[in-house]
Amino acid sequence: MKKWLSMAVCLVSLSLMGCAAGHKNVDASWTEAPKTISVLFTEPTVQNKDDVEDDLPEYADNFSGWFSEQLKAEFAEQTGITPSIVAQKSDDAFNMTVTKIGKKEYKVPNPKFDAIGVQNGYVISIAFLDVSRLSETRMIVPGSFETKSYLQYLGQYTIADVDAKKVVTTGMFKARVSLGFALQKGDWEENVENMVKEIVKDTPLEQK
Length: 208
What we know:
Strand content: 35-45%
Structural class: alpha/beta
Order of helices and strands: HEEEHHEEEEEEH
Shape: globular
Radius of gyration: 18 Å
Number of strands: 9
Largest sheet: 7 strands, mixed
């Protein structure tokens, strides 16, 4: 019985955790926030395109346009620095390098500094963004289960000092927002907030 209770407590704790999770490696020599930042991303993979048509109809054929606007607003909000550039780039602008993050290995987008069109400051590069709607069933107590639906963004990223041509952070994120009766526009926006908070967390970009 104690074993079952312990499992139940763990599962309840998981359900109460924040909406973003991930792992990162931050260069210890990076101690100050930059004056300028840029944000680049490769083409997102959207698994639930029908939801985009329902909730963001004006961006049904341009999810990247909506994503760009949200990234600019959210990075400004979370860092106090409005990005000078927010743009989608082709995979060719990056070296997709296998890096150990936490206990696993991930491909991360190391920018090709002569190919990204960013001249100075720091650049946040996001790749392998996967957008989906999913449901999970969890045991609350022995014999009792609940099913929750989520909007989820998965991906990998780097933060690099353009002037020094040096990557100072590599990481992965899993951002989620719990859904109510139906997926709504605000859920998409809230999950960008969750994602950006995870990217800047524990770096000099994070506003204390």
